[in-house]
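Before going further, learn to read the protein records used in this course. Taken together, the tokens spell out the fold as the letters spell out the chain. A record is reproduced here so that you can trace the correspondence yourselves:

***
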Amino acid sequence: MSSEPLILAVETATLSGSLALTRGAEVIGGFNGDPAVSHSNTLLADLDKLLSESKVTLVTVDLFAVAAGPGSFTGLRIGIATVKALAATLDRPCAAVPTLHAVALSGGASEASVALLPAGRGEVFAQLFSVSTDGVVKALDEPSHISPKKMIDKYGSLESVVWCGSGAIAQRELIASSDEGKEWRIPPQTDNLAEHVAALALRNFNEDRLVAPEELHAIYVRPSDAELKVS
């Protein structure tokens, strides 16, 4: 493998999903999905289109990266299964990137970034990070599945916060009504989250923290609706 790996990143944790192809830190191509169409119907076709438009063949990919969750249960399973199959067939290593880490990175450098993703039923997946200017994302607590009110209760005492991700956009009014003069901001939502998955995968590559395809597992944070009904 070259010193600048060709990375194919798959992000199916969010409703629309995204793909990215990078050579080291350079973005070669990207693709944003359609939130109205299931990943199961489009992922392989979207991958083929991205590779074709980027004039890259699948066999030249050095590293497969995937957003491992939390996020859509169905989406995560589709993305991880696809990456597992491709990486195993080509005998390539993988990088499992927690979705909320990628969301935090998308918001830029900050001493306190709260990454938020919609979790269904009006709730959110949330986690607090620090993000350095050179892209080191450090978790400051554990990911949680909570109501927006509890989210404010949990992080509302922080004086300076970057609220990141589609969950922050969805909760913009609540966040704005709760800042009480604090230095809170919500950056624009990233167009392609998979690019940030690829960036974190590159860090895993440089730090020798890659995994075999069979070691990829989803990070769910909460039980699925089916499991909740059984319990």
